[in-house]
Automatic annotation (TrEMBL):
Keywords: Antibiotic resistance, Cell membrane, Membrane, Transmembrane, Transmembrane helix, Transport
Coiled-coil annotated spans: none
BP term (GO), one: response to antibiotic
Entry protein name: Transport permease protein
Species this protein is from: Brachybacterium endophyticum
Intracellular or extracellular location(s): Cell membrane; Membrane
């Protein structure tokens, strides 16, 4: 009964957030412009030194993983905005599920992530990237990307509920993203990084998602790239799925507990 109530309340909150997104389309500018800029800069400014046209195929998987990780900052900022404006206080005054309020936020933010994925794929096609796998593999890869976006959005929710102000949530929500995204195999092979960082990069969920996306789309690394070793590199889709489940299992309960503790103040 509680699960059904949480799902129902989450659907209502998600619908409210999506209506707000439709009325303020300017909020999507960052989600659209940021991945385009990264694709163009990495493909044309650095791509020549890293493998040229072949690197562009390798790049798209990394851009997808990085962008979806960065999109968790949208959850942090908009949930913090609702807290700061007092909207969450009104929700708490209603007979609503505590889980449903946060679930609605994380589910509605999947719309931004889906648009980002579409923009990246179109931009990739424009610069010469091509998927070479079957339609089934492509659809499964997109489903994995959405699962990852949903998982990292719970990290953003916990940051928002801890910070409780838009400015702090925005700062903290971006601070952890850079080391997580760049100490990874998103843009180069994990085994091309300094030895002290290789183990971190190999087991980084961003690496797993980027590698799984490349495998799912049928893209290969440029000639001369060192092939990463280890279990995560050999089973990227499985490891990425396990990472997503772990992130949800850890951060969702923490976010709900934090929400409840705020309500008792």
């Amino acid at each position: 009964m509680r699960v059904l109530r949480a799902l129902g309340d989450g659907r209502v909150i998600a619908r409210r957030n999506l209506i707000g997104l439709r009325r303020t389309p300017g909020a999507l500018v960052t989600g659209i412009a940021q991945p385009i800029l990264f694709v163009l800069i990495l493909a044309f400014v650095f791509g020549g030194a890293l493998g040229g046209d072949q690197y562009r195929e390798f790049l798209i998987g990394g851009i997808l993983a990085q962008t979806l990780t960065f999109n968790s900052s949208f959850t942090a900022v908009y949930l913090a905005k609702d807290l700061q404006s007092g909207l969450i206080d009104r929700f708490r005054a209603l007979p609503m599920s505590r889980v449903g309020v946060i679930l609605g936020r994380t589910v509605s933010d999947l719309a931004t992530s889906a648009i980002s994925v579409l923009v990246i794929l179109v931009c990739g096609l424009a610069i010469g990237w091509r998927p070479t796998s079957g339609i089934g593999s492509i659809l499964l890869t997109c489903a994995l990307l959405m699962l990852f976006a949903f998982a990292v959005s719970w990290v953003g929710a916990l940051i928002a509920l801890t910070a409780r102000s838009v400015e702090v949530a925005q700062s903290v929500g971006l601070l952890w993203l850079f080391p997580v995204c760049f100490v990874s195999g998103a843009f180069v092979s994990a085994d091309m990084l300094p030895s002290a960082l290789q183990a971190i990069a190999r087991w980084n969920p961003v690496t797993a998602v980027a590698t799984a996306a490349r495998d799912g789309f049928g893209n290969s690394a440029p000639a001369g790239f060192v092939a990463p070793g280890g279990w995560p590199a050999e089973h990227p889709a499985l490891y990425a799925t396990l990472c997503c489940i772990t992130l949800i299992a850890v951060f969702a309960p923490m976010a709900v507990m934090r929400y409840r503790s705020i309500g008792r103040r």
